[in-house]
């Protein structure tokens, strides 16, 4: 490495780029803050957000009904639902997560617009809020300042965190983060200003309208399957990264942290289940040492680079990965 070396030695991380060596200007923001101490004394009272409780309950009831409608849907509608699932998932994984939260690669304006639209189709808060909360999650993982602290149990880390008010430490630490890159991104700010309209259009109207208009699917089926059921499945696939991938699986890179390697989550969240690796090396654009293997999001980013729409993919060197495995891994690592 070049000028990055001293910083990387301190952080026990080394970032290289597929296009050459690069330094991560936000390595400090991405690293776990060992200086943080949870406040002593009783925890603040849990305040329910009943609006979210009601909406999430109705959403999952509607999704369950959508499952019963699957036999009545045309093959084209089912294929369209899968396309919408992949598009909205990429808006989270390749967009809000790897591009905007971790700045693990650079994207051109057309690609950023595409990912922002896909992110609105996923309807998981706007990019700015998603990336802010995710940076807080990495910096204070499994503490009171973690928005979906897995130490509070599966239900809380999966969906419960959205049904209650945030812990005061989450809000406090989120306000102190360096977010100038997000504020300076016109695509992120445009989506934030027009988020509600973009969600109505991308998450509900377009998934419903396309099968009705182009191949005569009933609006009823078009609403409950490619819109409601697909949306609910993407939500839960994302939530499994916060819950299951922090509880079940092996820890070949760092046995001292909770995040795990979970193959089911890797499949359902199109590549986000290599979670022990990701929390050990959060700036690796592939979130895994295996590249495209079981990682559709990494394949997508690589293809965008091939088309010239993305560049500067950050990658952890093989030597650093092996060194970390030997030093802190749980002994379960397998190559390939």
TrEMBL record:
<feature type="domain" description="Fatty acid desaturase">
    <location>
        <begin position="79"/>
        <end position="283"/>
    </location>
</feature>
<keyword id="KW-0408">Iron</keyword>
<feature type="transmembrane region" description="Helical">
    <location>
        <begin position="53"/>
        <end position="72"/>
    </location>
</feature>
<keyword id="KW-1133">Transmembrane helix</keyword>
<feature type="transmembrane region" description="Helical">
    <location>
        <begin position="78"/>
        <end position="100"/>
    </location>
</feature>
<dbReference type="GO" id="GO:0005789">
    <property type="term" value="C:endoplasmic reticulum membrane"/>
</dbReference>
<keyword id="KW-0256">Endoplasmic reticulum</keyword>
<keyword id="KW-0444">Lipid biosynthesis</keyword>
<dbReference type="GO" id="GO:1903966">
    <property type="term" value="P:monounsaturated fatty acid biosynthetic process"/>
</dbReference>
<dbReference type="Pfam" id="PF00487">
    <property type="entry name" value="FA_desaturase"/>
</dbReference>
<keyword id="KW-0479">Metal-binding</keyword>
<keyword id="KW-0276">Fatty acid metabolism</keyword>
<dbReference type="InterPro" id="IPR001522">
    <property type="entry name" value="FADS-1_CS"/>
</dbReference>
<dbReference type="GO" id="GO:0005506">
    <property type="term" value="F:iron ion binding"/>
</dbReference>
<dbReference type="GO" id="GO:0032896">
    <property type="term" value="F:palmitoyl-CoA 9-desaturase activity"/>
</dbReference>
<feature type="transmembrane region" description="Helical">
    <location>
        <begin position="220"/>
        <end position="241"/>
    </location>
</feature>
<dbReference type="GO" id="GO:0006636">
    <property type="term" value="P:unsaturated fatty acid biosynthetic process"/>
</dbReference>
<keyword id="KW-0275">Fatty acid biosynthesis</keyword>
<keyword id="KW-0812">Transmembrane</keyword>
<dbReference type="GO" id="GO:0004768">
    <property type="term" value="F:stearoyl-CoA 9-desaturase activity"/>
</dbReference>
<keyword id="KW-0443">Lipid metabolism</keyword>
<comment type="similarity">
    <text>Belongs to the fatty acid desaturase type 1 family.</text>
</comment>
<feature type="transmembrane region" description="Helical">
    <location>
        <begin position="195"/>
        <end position="214"/>
    </location>
</feature>
<keyword id="KW-0472">Membrane</keyword>
<keyword id="KW-0560">Oxidoreductase</keyword>
<dbReference type="GO" id="GO:0070542">
    <property type="term" value="P:response to fatty acid"/>
</dbReference>
<dbReference type="InterPro" id="IPR015876">
    <property type="entry name" value="Acyl-CoA_DS"/>
</dbReference>
<dbReference type="InterPro" id="IPR005804">
    <property type="entry name" value="FA_desaturase_dom"/>
</dbReference>
<protein>
    <recommendedName>
        <fullName>stearoyl-CoA 9-desaturase</fullName>
        <ecNumber>1.14.19.1</ecNumber>
    </recommendedName>
</protein>
